[in-house]
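Slide 14.
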Amino acid sequence: MSDRCTEAVGWVAHWSLDRHCVRILSVRNESEITPLFSVSVLAAAPDLADMRDRYPKLSDLWDAIRSEYWAEFFPTERKPHHGSGFRASAS
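Slide 15: predicted structure.
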């Protein structure tokens, strides 16, 4: 398990993967010390979908986390192709 940090539109989220599930450990505004949300145990951390429901105004932050998650599992050298499957991009 390795913690990750994502920043978007003035917000910072610390998150981790738990068997391919994004778990949010903390969220805070960059200009504040006190977090909006924080847990100390991974098992108690909500997943990304739960956080979208709880804090919909932070959708840019959730989208950034989702993008980082997908980039880890689908590297940029493989691009979606119209039709079925994927094709490798030309170098």
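Speaker note: Residues 3-86 form one domain.
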